[in-house]
Amino acid sequence: xxxxxxxxxxxxxxxxxxxxxxxxxxxxxISFSSAVTDHDASDGAxxxxxxxxxxxxxxxxxxxxxxxxxxTLLKHSDIAIIRFGNKYKQWNxxxxxxxxxxxxIPYITxxxxxxxxxxxxxxxxxxxxxxxxxxxxxxxxxxxxxx
Length: 147
Description:
Blueprint: E1 3-9, H1 15-25, E2 30-34, H2 39-43, H3 55-75, E3 79-83, H4 91-102, E4 107-110, H5 120-125, E5 128-130, H6 133-145
Parallel strand pairs: 1-2, 1-3, 3-4, 4-5
Helix pairs in contact: 1-6
């Protein structure tokens, strides 16, 4: 079986690359997908529908266009990894976690210990909570290698 893993959340560090490379090194049967991680491209996803004078409406249109990709990829995923970073608030990641929980898509949260209290409800619905990419790789290895 080939597993589909969706990588959600924080875009300012290389955590996605670490997980992808770690799983590739272990030759795990996993394909990865993600939201668009280019900030400018994501923010301008709705611009094809016309330029807006107000950032509120630009953000609104772009969020809907981005949701086409995100919801489709999440629905077709076997598991999601949802990363919360310390520097910025990832409201989109929290939304993805809620979407996963309501859609019965298993997910693993990834964040530093300092965010444990703030994310207690999100973590409570997760199948696991990891603090390092190495832990995520080990969880994925266990999951896909023992099937």
